[in-house]
């Protein structure tokens, strides 16, 4: 481990800085014989791509995935899938002002101290550009576990919350608006609010809810690789994430056992699902659902005091093109990470019984 | 990976079912030359042990740790530390009624389906008895990273919350009461409430807050082994945990960037600390703090409908001795897991620079 | 990794010094539903045990394996199998003379330098006592891959070689003599020679050949976990091993391609098998065979000059009870390591195709 | 693990087939602050490259390494180093005749059976082209452990052996001839023999000896990651390797303990070095030396009978441009793998003592 690999059997290893020549990765362990829908992969990339609407950053990146190995005549061969995404829109000069200045609530300071140096162009390795790699891994994972439905959506922006449970939402409508919220009324409010925040040169946080349906029973490897523990780790790997809860989550901590227990139906399903589809770290076949908290983007278009690498106070103002609210673009990233976790456990689970 | 190892260089691998002959584990990677305070380890075991007060389960377990290797004349040798904890209080007959019945919101059903069978005595591998192993690993980790202070405490039980920030609490008072809440007024309310819940044959959830002070800068391995992502995974490994948030957490998702950013002082510390001591997955030297949500214990002393392994409806009522609220005993477990994560990153970080 | 785990899905992690209270380990990843023949496991332990005949060390160790978890009513549960072997015959005083003296060609010097200290009692972690743990892992692996036959035997002692190819030997006769050589004429010579060497207070090396029959096609994970590369690593892990070759081995390096190539029969088997049952790191269904070289045991009953930990010259003579030739007792160890490699790849291979 | 990663802290993960668009890899764990000599890396690539002399294949590959990340202004940043090598000389048509025919002693059959399909163009993933990736990793490893000298050379071709011990050779002369043998007289004989073999349309095997000098004490992680066990695994990963021995190797198996033991000098060095610089899996500071056996290349320019994927007998003759003897080109590959093993243990060893 040096922190750039994710998964055990279905494993993604990545490289890349935001302003290097390219980012990319290697997907190991995808079984042979999977006929890939390359267009569907590229479509996931489009969902994550900057510049899709007025409420996201206007940087233009093509984000075309180039596959270099592991696929022969459209089908996986069982050998590692190498892929690459060019950094076509680097504009390094945009970032020269960051050379010796630590941006507040960014990773400039910590990378500098940990490694004794840093690639200061646009966040380098700490940039969310890296998540484009994850979407590639997730898109292939989705095709491997194609019977499982993984659907994420924006469930809050600032203090605007979707106040319906996911069962009352039509998740197929998530892509109908720029915010990626399937509840149209909420979506409108969110969009208006984000535009307003953007005009202020400010940013705002939000949450994403992810629902996993048609789950097989048995995925997850207790005691340290419980399904929800790996889902949690994967979500907390995403830039700007501050919290993760599944099933009843933090609300569950206020409940009584007699309220919280999910009683069984005769077919092994449960009448309620406060457990969130997981018992003892293993999927029980019910829907898995979890919620992820994203802090507001740290780069704001307002003046901020800070220090340079010598500890001298200075001032700075965000430049470049940044998202006023990251959650709409993070929806496909959440799905990608969840899909990779599921694909990995799906393969590992094949070794559970003789 | 088969899910029973935790960590990369400082690594704990465990075995054991609640009603087998013993549980135990192997700690790899503890550097040579650490003179161990065995009494301090045993003291941590006492903190987790059942039967310490009237608000926790009255099962009696000695939980004495027997070290079998890796320590010579009181000092670690750099070789793996094998240890064992006997299961002295097995009372298997207490659990015979579980043989073919799936307890609601327990792991009986999922283990049965995943493995085609299960050790039905008291939860088997899914029992929280396993966490005794983790406390051993954590107690040694604490001694390895002895300059770092790891302090957890109960921050809520049901709807009773400690309403002060941790900075206003005297964390040395945590052990002064049975609830392990350093705020005495809250502790009293919590204790009364738990007794009441117990009398009802019910259980209740709660949260634990953990504060890590005197942190070195530079721990954490982006992009997939970010410090908070591994902390999150470790906490979500603990039985009954439903959520994890660090720094501003879920509240941060409602804030604006201009409110949320932590501005620097000239010495590299920050004026605020909504980031929770971690930027880009790497510690920045400020306090780390996070909150963990525990659901109410599933075993209640009330009658519940359920099914047996053939899908026939039946009724059951909890027997044996169970905790009405798990958070007081989970405090040392939270600390142990956090300490192991820190010890692992502390060792890995030695390879960051040439 | 800290060097004490072996395998990926079928994984053994061990602990223990030769003169601690016990040695033991944890076997992760053994699938659920395997009904174990405990007697067969104990029988493998007997094969490795000291004191079986006059040509091996006369130390008495019971080497009884105590299983602590992972087995319920005789069947594996899919959870980790913890086990322990007591060190009943420690006699620490036998080794006190080693405290500050570095025995030639032992690991005293290197452990001392690497870790800054060492457990000097009988080799500590570097003792071949550790291999008792491996025999437990291997005995369970053998039962998991029960259709595959793994048979090792002594193929040379000093300059006495079995001069027949393995196909002409009756491998069921290996256990008929103390040397574990299925060729009776050679066995007799070897036994006489070892007795003579022992009388001289000296030791001698030898080789073990291992044959794996009834192999499934497809085991092995190129490019870094080729089947023969893992077999080689596993053999080189065994104390005193200096070399590994498979198929044509070092002889193959003198051959021409036209002589060495294995031509196919119509059923996919090959007419010759200089490849040793592996092509490109993957088993092809033919017999796997390999040869392992063991150096002579370093502890001799003769006077040797050496130095103490301060660099002062001194003299020493081996005490205690040691093997004059290690290969007879290493036969079950070779089989055990091979069986664990196969079991691991057998499980991993389940994820090769969709 | 899916077999495409090598190492723990200093870790190489690779992708690529011989006739895909590119091969490449990711090097994780190279510490920050290493100023790379890119030219030296490219020079190692030239050493491995086909077409360097008349006794190696005349395929032309540029093998220029393109670095994509992890290096900023010439210095490593501590983030993963992504790199790529284009396949400029693919000529896929050369291999179309292999589509349904299994080449004898190649991996066509085993890949087909394991994965249910294969990329039949030139060996796909099983091609030695992959080793170009390893040379990149090794070249960077060499710069990380720059005080350690890693020198390999051809020590035999067919039955022509260098009959001097390595101490009597001037290893700086290895590159003076096409065979990469520092003993000029032997080199001449080898070269003549290889030309002769080539004219016959045949191939021949050989051995490479590798010597590691100026070793620090303490590298290697017993009991399963002994230094020689990892060196062995790494060598057995190289295409066509059939055997590995270190120190006294297979000869040592014929010796007595009184002959084999390495007695100490007062400074901790040893008078002899039959141990090959490693005791108990840990380097002792003496020279490490080992020998690797390569079988003859399987592709010969002679007619051979074989079968197609339906089991029908057919005939085939090698086409394309292949090496008559692989050892000269394998010299830099042996060095690269050894260097990566050493770099990994060098970093891991930093965590050995408190």
Automatic annotation (TrEMBL), chains A, B, C, D:
UniProt pathway: Metabolic intermediate biosynthesis; chorismate biosynthesis; chorismate from D-erythrose 4-phosphate and phosphoenolpyruvate: step 7/7
EC number: 4.2.3.5
Keyword Cytoplasm annotated: no
UniProt keyword annotation of Amino-acid biosynthesis present: yes
UniProt remark on cofactor binding: Reduced FMN (FMNH(2)).
Gene Ontology molecular-function annotations: chorismate synthase activity; FMN binding
Catalysed reaction equations from the record: 5-O-(1-carboxyvinyl)-3-phosphoshikimate = chorismate + phosphate
CDD domains on file: Chorismate_synthase (cd07304)
Positions annotated to bind NADP(+): 48, 54
A biological process term (GO) from this entry: aromatic amino acid family biosynthetic process
Class of the enzyme per the UniProt entry, highest EC level: lyase
Record GO cellular component, one term: cytosol
Keywords assigned by UniProt, alphabetized: Amino-acid biosynthesis, Aromatic amino acid biosynthesis, FAD, Flavoprotein, FMN, Lyase, NADP
Chain positions recorded as FMN binding sites: 125-127, 239-240, 280, 295-299, 321
PROSITE patterns linked: CHORISMATE_SYNTHASE_1, CHORISMATE_SYNTHASE_2, CHORISMATE_SYNTHASE_3
Entry similarity comment: Belongs to the chorismate synthase family.
Assembly with partners or alone: Homotetramer.
Job description of the protein: This reaction introduces a second double bond into the aromatic ring system.
Listed name of the protein: Chorismate synthase
Gene field: aroC
């Amino acid at each position: 481990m040096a922190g750039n690999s994710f998964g055990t059997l279905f494993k993604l290893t990545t490289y890349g800085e935001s302003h290097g020549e390219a980012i990319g990765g290697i997907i190991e362990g995808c079984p042979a014989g999977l006929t890939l829908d390359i267009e569907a992969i590229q479509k996931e990339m489009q969902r994550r791509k900057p510049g899709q609407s007025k409420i996201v950053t206007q940087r233009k990146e093509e984000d075309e995935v180039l596959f270099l190995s592991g696929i022969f005549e459209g089908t996986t061969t069982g050998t590692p899938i190498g892929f690459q995404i060019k950094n076509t829109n680097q504009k390094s000069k945009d970032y020269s002002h960051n050379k010796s200045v630590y941006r507040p609530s960014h990773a400039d300071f910590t990378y500098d101290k940990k490694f004794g140096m840093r690639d200061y162009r646009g966040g380098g390795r700490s940039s969310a550009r890296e998540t484009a790699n994850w979407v590639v891994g997730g898109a292939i994972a989705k095709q491997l576990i194609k019977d499982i439905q993984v659907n994420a959506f924006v469930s809050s922006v600032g203090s605007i919350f979707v106040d319906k449970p996911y069962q009352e939402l039509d998740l197929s409508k998530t892509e109908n608006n720029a915010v990626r919220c399937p509840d149209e009324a909420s979506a409108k409010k969110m969009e208006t609010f984000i535009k307003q925040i953007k005009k202020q040169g400010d940013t705002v946080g939000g949450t994403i809810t992810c629902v996993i349906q048609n789950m097989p029973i048995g995925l997850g490897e207790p005691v340290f690789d419980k399904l929800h523990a790996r889902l949690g780790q994967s979500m907390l790997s995403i830039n700007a994430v501050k919290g993760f809860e599944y099933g009843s989550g933090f609300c569950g901590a206020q409940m009584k056992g007699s309220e919280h227990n999910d009683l069984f139906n005769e077919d092994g399903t449960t009448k309620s699902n406060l457990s969130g589809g997981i018992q003892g770290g293993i999927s029980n076949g019910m829907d898995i659902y979890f919620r992820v908290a994203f802090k507001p983007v740290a780069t704001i278009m307002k003046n901020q005091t800070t220090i340079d690498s010598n500890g001298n106070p200075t001032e700075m103002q965000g430049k470049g093109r940044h998202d006023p609210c990251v959650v709409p673009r993070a929806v496909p990233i959440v799905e990608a990470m969840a899909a990779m976790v599921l694909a990995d456990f799906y393969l590992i689970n094949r070794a559970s019984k003789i």
